[in-house]
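Holo prediction. Input below; ligand is cytidine-5'-triphosphate.
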Amino acid sequence: MTVTQGFLDNRIFQIISKAARSKGVRAFVIGGYVRDCFLGRKSKDIDIVVEGSGIELAEAVGELVRSNVTVFRNFGTAMLKYKGTEVEFVGARKESYRRDSRKPIVEDGTLEDDQQRRDFTINAMAFSLQEEDFGALVDPFGGIRDLAAGIIRTPLDPDTTYSDDPLRMIRAVRFATKLSEPGRRFTIVPESLESIRRNRNRLEILSRERIAEELDKMLVCSEPSIGFRLMEETGLLEYVLPQLCRLKGVENVDGHGHKENFTHTLEVLDNVAAAETEAIAEGRLSNFEFEDGVEVQKQRTEPYLWLRWAALLHDIGKPATKRFDKETGWTFHGHEVVGARMVPKIFKSLKMPLNEKMKYVEKLVLLHLRPISLVTEEVTDSAVRRLLFEAGNDIDDLMLLCNADITSKNPRKVERLKQNFELVGRKLAEVEAKDAIRNFKNPITGEYIMELYGIPPCRQIGELKEFVKNAILDGIIGNNFAEADVLMRKHASEMGMKPVK
Ligand code: CTP
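Structure of the complex:
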């Protein structure tokens, strides 16, 4: 018996132990918390399994710690918060399936019954909360052995575990991605991989929201490519994001092949993850969020999910725009425009939010070639101002994505491009410091024009504002009211407009 000291120092465990004793039931910590203790990772919540009623024990604990208990009667679970940590209680269950019905018979069960209905051996370990063996590890399926070996295995035959909840097929991939570290990969055991391949079409019965949630969790990992490659190998990707599968393969014409876009996409995704992690550690990135209608800037402390989505989808328009030209070889002209248009469709198909986060992804996909195109052109202030204007506050993320997109088999080429790209970065900083374009607000407002010329809302107002904006972006005038006003009045008079005051 392994007695695990130190893992249960949080006072809540003693309190639960006491409450369970007074109710005459046995309680255990189970699942992710136990796994993460052994991995030395911080777990955000605690799951408690009770041989008896989870709801009743939660209510008893709630009284002891004076905390509100939220009860989910349909699921037979209850939850309370203790010092910021969510503690969830569930009664141990035994599920069995009748041959003639997919509906399980759920009965109260023992800890072991419950453990064998869980997804993976590494998630089925439990710590005892009984006074006589407080902290003892209960691990009938060898979770600790699999954790040490970096193995993802189901407690029962994988076909049974995956048919109980097909989402577990994606969860297997997600845990392989999340738990892997540089030099230490977690792998899914071969019989489980085969079972996933066999049962992949069962994903069809899942809600798209649950699938998207797993994808989100995979994307914010430090090496997200692991998950997407595994999904591709097992055939899950075809059900999850078929558009990404279309990036696979290399076509050859007259001995000319193009870049393998699936591999490239995954490389960019990992590059973005690494670069973002570094930039966060150095405090170089911000999030911009609206609070009560005002945009607030906050230093980024965690991976930004939507930047990861932008990286995953940046080349999604390539298959639809692929052409072979005898002179220039393979081209993907306009793939950024086609790709940006695909973003809302993909978000919709996964029931993801169709809000400003989606707009951000759309924008990054649309603009992802712009910074690098400045490398080959002469970098004029005006081109830089236009890029700053279009990217706005997302310019730093766009630059990060674009830099991560520089991949080639030729390291000298990568080095040269990266150096030139740094020049673009410096130029952007210079122009921004001088002209403050990224939060561009036209110094001439519509109300001002209406008042000055005594006119109602009309087409001319938009035309004048656009004229002023372009003059500022082209560097004809500075970004200030005085110069903008002189220019606007001149142009208005050429349009035949006269001020009323
Ligand atoms: N579980 C399961 N099958 C599922 C979902 C969850 O068996 N489809 C069990 C596992 O024992 C898991 C526990 O419920 O450990 C809690 O689930 P969840 O919070 O989703 O996962 P964690 O293991 O806590 O990991 P993470 O918080 O990283 O998602």
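The mean pLDDT is 93. That is the main takeaway for now.
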